[in-house]
Fold:
Amino acid sequence: MTGGGNTPDERTVAWGDELVKLHAAFRRDLAELRGGSMRAPDLREHCLTFCEALHAHHTGEDDVLFPHLDGLHPELTAVLDRLREEHRVVGRLLARIRALAGAGGRTEIGAELDRLAGELEAHLDYEEEQLVPLLNAMTDMPENL
Structure:
């Protein structure tokens, strides 16, 4: 990598730092959902939007990023397997929250959001610990990510 202008060899995106920013947005949105200050229609809409965004993020990791990392770093097999399993756990919670949001169960949504917060915080912390340094060192990422 060179300093200065935009040369083809210069990496302009620190992918790990971008992941941390995205995770921070998910954390912030989840905290807002859990805050309890939203009216029921807003809560429903925000829950569904949040669930879809988080699901899309995890699907992209599972379908594109993790296979890319598998090929480059076979030593990450156990880490990536754990992250994939955590995605499945989070996915089940998201499905439950979506169903409750559709039915308007505010109390039940709150309990599920609390469960999600515990699972998601641990997952995001582990993912950042394991992948951010590696992603920041990468100069190429899969195109479909």
In short: Residues 1-11 have pLDDT under 50 and may be disordered.
